[in-house]
Design a protein that fits this description.
With 350 residues, the chain is α+β, with helices and mostly antiparallel strands. The protein folds into two domains: 201 residues, CV3147-like fold; 125 residues, CV3147-like. The chain is 35% helix and 29% strand. The strands form two sheets. Strands 1, 2, 3, 4, 5, 6, 7, 8 and 9 form a nine-stranded mixed beta sheet that branches. An eight-stranded antiparallel beta sheet has the order 14-13-12-11-10-17-15-16. Strand 12 and strand 13 form a beta hairpin. Helix 2 runs parallel beside helix 5 and helix 9 packs antiparallel against helix 10. The termini are far apart.
């Protein structure tokens, strides 16, 4: 077990924002949650997946909704009523809390829920990056039950769902989130320790902390934060320059957009899914396409503005995603954005 205090939590916000690949919630919301955590406790306990007993009980806790809305409105700790409702439905308290994905906000939401419950969080999540839909996790790929799913807003409204699978969970939860004003706390995937170990992408908080620390130290020493991130992630600098154009529309509870930097175009559905250069892909999800300002601020697509000087950084996806079952999860979203070709690893494309 290790202890996360203010410095580690803030490094995690910045590192997880970058690793969220354009999604996973704004660092502003993440920092707001860090302050909420520090009001509850000076520290958060964290354990590695291996330390979790096989028959302990774990739940996923997250925030759901359109990132642009969350950024404008701010988080009202909706994660807590969602978790309490799940515990009420199951008739037992959770022993551990785990993240659904990596992101500046959704890596911190479970830490907040864990601190409020006085239980440890797990160093890992279901993806190792951020994703737009519930069926795009290793928990789902490994057939871990999703139901019951509980949702709550800041006004005392809540819902308990029993979807038969993740695509249906996504539709039901998304519909309720829209009714809640595009923002909800969600708790789901109640699982035993042995189930979690089968499916988890481990070490995601450790990685986020390393990336956040690399950015902070580079900025403090007047070094190039982009190079520091590329080094610590074994990543690739795809492009560097001004954001010349951003197009975005919100439909069905998702933000769809295109961002242009130099001769690169990045297409997203909440998260960055594919980067193009001269009509050919240069990075395809599940590989990560990440934003960092040249002075070292990680960004989500909700934070990207025309005129910003940014770097586009590509990072290899976790090996678990580079399997036929893993790749199948990303194919429908890529097709929706107009790409029906094969997945080619980023290290081959670049």
């Amino acid at each position: 077990m290790r202890i996360l205090r203010e410095r580690e939590l803030k490094d995690i916000v910045y590192g997880a924002t970058l690793l969220g690949a354009g999604g996973g919630g704004s660092p502003e919301n993440g920092m707001q949650l860090v302050n909420s955590i520090l009001e509850i406790s000076e520290e958060v306990k964290m354990v590695s997946p291996e330390e979790v007993p096989d028959y302990s009980m774990i739940a996923v806790v997250a925030g759901m909704g359109a990132p642009e809305v969350l950024l404008k409105r701010g988080w009202k700790n909706e994660d807590i009523p969602a978790l309490r409702l799940l515990e009420q439905v199951l008739g037992r308290k959770m022993d551990y809390i785990i993240a659904i994905e990596t992101g500046g906000f959704n890596s911190i939401t479970p830490l907040h829920a864990a601190a409020a419950s006085g239980v440890p969080a797990i160093d890992g999540d279901g993806v190792g990056r951020a994703i737009p839909q519930l069926e795009m996790t290793m928990f789902y790929v490994h057939n871990l039950p999703l139901a019951p799913v509980t949702l709550a807003d800041a006004h005392g409204n809540s819902a308990v769902l029993y979807p038969v699978d993740a695509p249906m969970a996504e539709k039901m939860a998304r519909g309720i989130t829209v009714a809640f004003g595009m923002q909800a706390g969600i708790a789901c995937h109640p699982m035993a320790g042995w189930q979690m170990k089968k499916a988890v992408i481990g070490g995601t908080y450790t990685m986020a902390e390393k990336v956040g620390r690399a950015i902070r130290e580079a900025r403090d020493k007047g070094k190039d934060p982009v190079k520091a991130v590329v080094e610590v992630t074994n990543g690739f600098e795809i492009a560097r320059g001004k954001v010349t154009k951003k197009e975005v529309e919100t439909k069905g509870g998702f933000d769809y957009g295109k961002v242009y930097v130099g001769d690169i175009r990045v297409d997203y559905k909440n998260e960055n899914m594919i980067a193009w250069k001269a009509g050919k892909p240069v990075a395809i999800s599940p590989d990560l396409i990440c934003w960092l300002t040249t002075d070292g601020r990680p960004l989500t697509n909700a934070d990207i503005k025309e005129g910003l000087e940014v770097a586009v950084i590509g990072i290899k996806a976790h090996e678990r995603w580079r399997t036929p079952e893993g790749l199948a999860v990303f194919r429908p979203v890529l097709a929706e954005l107009g790409y029906t070709g094969e997945y080619i690893p980023i290290e081959k494309l670049l």
